[in-house]
Amino acid sequence: MGSTNSTLLKIPNVEVLMQETGFSPAHIIRLHDRFKALDKEGRGHLCPHDFGAIKELAMNPIGDRIIGAFFSPGKETVDFHTFVKILAHFRPVDKDRPKEPNSPEPINSRSNKLKFAFQLYDQDKDGKISRDELLQVLRAMLGMQVTDEQLESIADRTIQEADLDRDDTISFEEFRKSLEKINIDHKMSIRFLR
Amino acid sequence: MESYLFPFDSLICMLLGISFTVWFTLLLVFIIVPAIFGVSFGIRRVYMKSLIKLFEWATLRMERGAKEKNQHLYKPYSNGIIAKEPVSLEQEIQEMRRGSAEPEFDMSDIFYFCRRGVESIVDDEVTKRFTAEELESWNLLTRSNYNFHHISTRLTALWGMGVLIRYGFLLPLRMKNYLSDKVHLMCYRICVRALTAIITYHDSENKPKNGGICVANHTSPIDVIILASDGCYAMVGQVHGGLMGVIQRAMVKACPHIWFERSEVKDRHLVAKRLSDHVADESKLPILIFPEGTCINNTSVMMFKKGSFEIGCTVYPVAIKYDPRFGDAFWNSSKFGMVNYLLHMMSSWAIVCSVWYLPPMSRMEGEDAVQFANRVKAAIARKGGLADLLWDGGLKRGKVKEVFKEEQQKLYSKVLVGSSEDRSRS
Fold it and tell me: Any one cellular component term from GO for this entry (chain A) (predicted)?
């Protein structure tokens, strides 16, 4: 036990971080501890290998894609700021936040959560989910439990339902529209304890 | 000038001599003699009680100090940083489908896996088991406190005194004791006193008898000392190099133990044969085995390796639970070496633990080794108040087996494809 201020001071730009992400000081400290626990060699940043060491994540069918979401294209390391910003996507939506017209959208808005999920599908980041990309995700989630034909029929049906402009790919808008009725806040939020 | 120094010199020598003699006598009277006769003076219990009072005072002091400065106290997250949804894959998918007619793949299915994945990044069960348990109150050991902070002079002074006592008094006392081992039970008892170990043995009528296997959960090498000071066992284990090897060789001279070369360990049949030979001989001591295979941090019991349960003799389960307030007994062998760990142990306040001897169990009809192992594990976990986990202790070092990922995939495909098969049939 100790007071929070001393630990917070060790983290650079922590005020900015808290404002951008909306995490409380207590949350930031816990995430910092978690970051340090994952960073076994104490380098101050994480690489994909550190995430791979988490057993439950290795067991997740789309574990690799989730790890990929932390690393911007071309970058091989993730520092604490980026780590927290990405995790901020999973904060529950702040219902009582005043709507300021000029402030940027909060990281945990419905739209940003959807964008995060979209990039799990759209690996080449061209803004569209192609049929191939859909097949890859399906294969990852179902493994060898289904045949190729079953996979293809599922993919066909999904594209048929969601693809409104008939270009055989699913854009972000189409993705958003198909998930209109889903309670995104509930599905894509993690309850952080006090 | 020289004559000036001379009288002082002899005075100092005399003082040193006297204090050394006094110290040694005290040592003899209070520690070694009672150990030989198995008598306790009850001093240790008083020591323990006063330590608890001290820790509570220190905690209150720190809380007050933090409140004065209007800051939040950082409470260690012993229960996890997030609240995980206990919803399973099937439940989640069914929930999402409630609107539509048939359960088919939907783009939103990925949310479940995504959320679970990120949850495990923030907080996962397994890594938690392999880091030392965090304490609610501070026990004046900097190692248990992540944010040591100057709260008040009094507290710091107390801490300083604690350091002095522990390193200047308790440590040399224990080193002396620890190194003088010769006779079996007596030397273990000395060790127990040396560590200021206050052990409560429960249900001693269930103590392991000859011709059986004693099975216990594993937290530190001290488990061995604790169990061995209350009864004679034959040890099983790998031949170690270094300090452990020396100790092992010394032990073999006293009692017939079963030590294996590393290469032999791979040959499971050889191991099983040697164990069953030993067990079959009624005159031989019960074998002590730690089936988890590695040290766990004493908040849970991990998967038992089935080898010891295949032998088919009576198993005497023993549950060991340490009180973490006095000193963390967990040995993180990937972080600390043996000598480092021993230093930690020797300079803790005390080792307080409880040992429960459970009634003997045997394999039932139609039960295979794995089921038997799980049954024993559940009994030990229940008695010791530890969480009963399915996870393999080997996860401390090894990679997750592919089979776990396949389980997830199977589950998901059953929900999707299984239901579409129902549709085509109807």
Answer: nucleus
Query: Can you tell me the distance from the alpha carbon of A56 to that of B94, in angstroms, rounded to the nearest whole number?
Result: 23
Q: How many CB atoms lie within 10 A of CB B378?
A: 13
**ipTM of the prediction:** 0.89
pTM confidence score: 0.53
Amino acid symbol at B177: N
Cβ-Cβ pairs closer than 8 A, A with B, add up to 189
Amino acid at B22: V
Residues in chain B: 426
The beta strand positions in B16-147, using DSSP E, are 82-83
Residue B145 is predicted with a pLDDT of 45
Contact map slice: B 30-89 vs A, CB within 8 A: 59, 62-63, 66, 69, 71-77, 79-83, 85
Question: In chain A, which residues have pLDDT < 70?
Answer: 1-5, 96-101, 194
pLDDT of res. B146: 41
Q: Taken in order A37, A40, A45, A49, is the CA torsion positive or negative?
A: negative
Mutate to test the interface with A, among B82, B121, B139, B390 (most CBs of A within 10 A): B121
Which has the closest alpha carbon to B178: B69, B338, B285?
Answer: B338
Q: Could you give the 3-state DSSP secondary structure of residue B101?
A: coil
Q: Which of A3, A142, A190 sits opposite B409 (nearest CB)?
A: A142
The span from the CA of A108 to the CA of B92, in Å, is 21
**pLDDT, tens only, B63-116:** 676 666 655 555 544 456 676 666 666 666 666 665 454 556 777 788 888 988
Q: Which residues in chain B are closer than 8 Å to A23, comparing Cβ atoms?
A: none
Q: Helix, strand, or coil here: B108? A: coil
